Automatic annotation (TrEMBL):
It comes from the Eukaryota. The lineage of its organism: Eukaryota, Metazoa, Chordata, Craniata, Vertebrata. InterPro entries: STRA6-like (IPR026612). The keyword Transmembrane applies. Keywords: Cell membrane, Membrane, Receptor, Transmembrane, Transmembrane helix, Transport. The keyword Cell membrane applies. It is found in: Cell membrane. The gene is LOC102901088. It is a multi-pass membrane protein. This is Stimulated by retinoic acid gene 6 protein-like.
Length: 621
């Protein structure tokens, strides 16, 4: 009799949906290009250079549109993050290298993946372009329509084949519900944009001001620096002290929010895919285990291979249980890394703002500008890849640790060998304790007999000055041969600790796992440092505030000058010719800037310099 789960798998093994998501990705480029052309037509070019007849016919239309500012965008951050989340399934499709539209040789695989990435980016470009466009009414309509198309096609694909071959019921729903949730959020966001822009268009609401050059949190940060008396510190909670403290004068850019959201969804999808593979392998192992049981039954449990087969069955059962149990700690480790990376980003940025580079290796104090620009483009994708591969490596390491615990502690008790296990554990613990005790004894002897006394009672430790030199030389001689053997264990422990820390921190792109002097070989850490420097140079609150003061002052001077000229043109009195007005303005300029008189160019037949001197003499008299 077939189980319900097996029947579900058989049904979905023959389920053929009328919607091919990969084919739909190709066809989605048509409306995507249409939306891009419409928004580009509405976008005007600020600096138009008429080089040929074609550009003259286009005028200042068809400007370049950007999906989002990867450096200085602090507004609408969560909308951009959710838009990134809508691309999670396609990103995982590329990550699994499932994009194979053509049969190509292996050496050209990188070009195909590049084309696939460009296609995925182009198909999801309207989400970001419509969110960042200045033409809110048109972009909201286009964004809502495009999001609705993706939402409807995904719903249709799920309804036709909701189950799968690995997890059984609702497997497709488990894969696509994050993207559906993100698309539903985008539908609501574009609908809100449409209603708000329509009310502005009808005159029911005032139009919002343009994006400020200086963000509020950046201004608050500068005010905090200029404040003479520090604010009174309030009592912090346990969460603020131990975990995270929110800073109102700091905001994460949209790039970091989008990277974190996409990393969370991709990690979830990766865990689901891994669990599907686990279910498939488990079923295959169950079949193999059944064949082994049939062999043992046929041999009446008297064959020579029976003990080996029983050990293999035990290993398979233990491995399946350990792998399933370690999914949770491995996933929680990577989730904690994502939050910790955000905290490290804020900590490192604040240190760079304060001019502190001591936390960086020396070779990264002055990074290459070109590499830093490339690093900010690499960071987001590399961070997600590091998290996914890091989860898999951490899961493998934790599974190996689980197998060691099972075979060293649990299985001996199950097999009624608890006393032998405790005896071996006690001997091992005693051996390690003696070795550590001898090492501590060497330190105590050196402190007590071979160092001179403290020079002051306030000193924390004795000075590095030898005492009892003859005894010291004998001490070194006799321990020389013992430390050779002790060094072997220290070397193996160094290798073991390096492997554990390296695999445990492989997902941490903000921390290098290379030794001192070899940090440049860590490409992920180099991308992290380059990204920090780009953000530091372009979003430093002090620098942005200074530039804002210059821009504001320049605008005010231009406004005052325009008002003065307007009043001069609109003043009451007899009409003055344009030539006389120009000469009067020229005289005013030369009076205010006498050095310009010597720089004036005199044309033949015009005594402009003499005329200027006469005017200046008349003004002085």
């Amino acid at each position: 009799m077939i189980s319900a789960n097996s029947r579900t798998r058989q049904l979905n093994g023959t389920c053929v949906s009328s919607v091919d998501m990969e084919l739909f990705l190709h066809y989605s480029l048509i409306p995507s290009l249409f939306i891009i052309l419409v928004l580009s037509f509405l976008q005007r070019r600020e600096h138009r250079k008429q080089r040929d007849d074609t550009s003259h016919l286009l005028g200042n239309r068809f400007g370049i549109i950007i999906p989002l500012d990867f450096v200085g965008t602090f507004s609408n951050r969560w909308s951009y993050g959710i838009a990134f989340g809508a691309t999670a399934n396609k990103v995982m499709f590329l990550f699994s290298e499932g994009y194979q539209p053509l049969h190509i040789p292996q050496w050209a695989q990188a070009f195909v993946l590049l084309i696939g990435g460009m296609e995925v980016g182009l198909s999801h470009f309207p989400f970001f372009a419509c969110l960042s466009s200045e033409f809110r009414l048109v972009s909201s309509i286009l964004g809502f329509s495009y999001s609705l198309i993706w939402f409807a096609v995904t719903i249709l694909y799920i309804i036709q084949c909701p189950h799968g071959q690995f997890l059984g019921k609702y497997e497709t729903v488990m894969f696509y519900w994050p993207s559906l949730l993100c698309l539903a959020f985008l539908l609501g966001r574009f609908l809100h944009m449409f209603v708000k822009s329509l009310r502005v268009h009808l005159g029911w609401e005032l139009q919002m001001e343009e994006k400020p050059f200086l963000e509020v949190h950046q201004a608050e940060h500068v005010k905090r620096l200029l404040r003479k008396a520090p604010l009174q510190e309030t009592k912090k909670s346990w969460f603020q002290t131990r975990v995270y403290e929110w800073d109102p004068c700091f905001q994460f850019p949209s790039r970091m929010i989008g990277t974190t959201v996409l990393a969370f969804i991709c990690l979830y999808l990766f865990i689901v895919i891994e669990f599907c593979m686990f279910m498939y392998v488990r079923d295959e192992l169950d079949v193999f285990e059944g064949e082994l049981e049939n062999y043992i039954a046929s041999m009446n449990q008297t064959g020579t291979l029976t003990p080996v087969i029983l050990q293999v069955k035990e290993l398979m059962n233990v491995s399946k249980g350990v792998w399933l149990v370690t999914i949770l700690p491995a996933s929680l480790t990577c989730v904690s890394y994502l939050f910790h990376i955000l905290a490290c980003y804020r900590k490192h940025m604040k240190r760079l703002w304060a001019g502190n580079k001591h936390f960086l290796p020396l070779k990264f104090h002055h990074p290459s500008s070109s590499k830093s620009v490339v690093a900010i483009a690499r960071y987001s994708g590399w961070q997600i890849a590091y998290i996914l591969w890091g989860y898999l490596i951490i899961h493998v390491v934790q599974s190996l640790c689980g197998l060691m615990i099972m075979y060293s502690l649990v299985l001996p008790v199950v097999h009624n060998q608890g006393l032998e296990m405790l005896q071996g554990l006690g001997i091992g613990t005693l051996t390690i304790s003696i070795v550590l005790g001898l090492m501590s004894l060497q330190v105590w002897i050196a402190t007590s007999f071979f160092l001179q006394p403290k020079m002051s009672t306030a000193d924390k430790q004795k000075p590095l000055a030898l005492n009892n030199r003859k005894a010291f030389h004998n001490f070194n001689y006799f321990l020389f041969f013992y430390n050779v053997l002790l060094g072997l264990g220290a070397c193996l422990s160094r290798l073991l600790i390096s492997c554990i820390l390296g695999t445990w921190l492989i997902a941490r792109i903000d921390r290098t796992i290379m030794q001192n002097g070899y940090e440049g070989a860590d490409m992920g850490f180099s991308a992290w440092i380059g990204m920090l420097y780009v953000d530091h140079y372009h979003t430093n609150p002090v620098l942005v505030s200074f530039c804002n003061i210059l821009i504001t002052g320049h605008r005010e001077r231009r406004l005052q000058q325009a008002i003065k000229y307007w009043c001069l043109n609109q003043s009451a009195g007899p009409r003055v010719s344009a030539r006389s007005r120009t000469r009067w303005l020229l005289l005013q300029t030369l009076v205010n800037n006498p050095k310009l008189v010597m720089l004036r160019k005199s044309r033949p037949g015009h005594s402009s310099r003499e005329f200027t001197q006469i005017l200046l003499m008349g003004s002085e008299s």
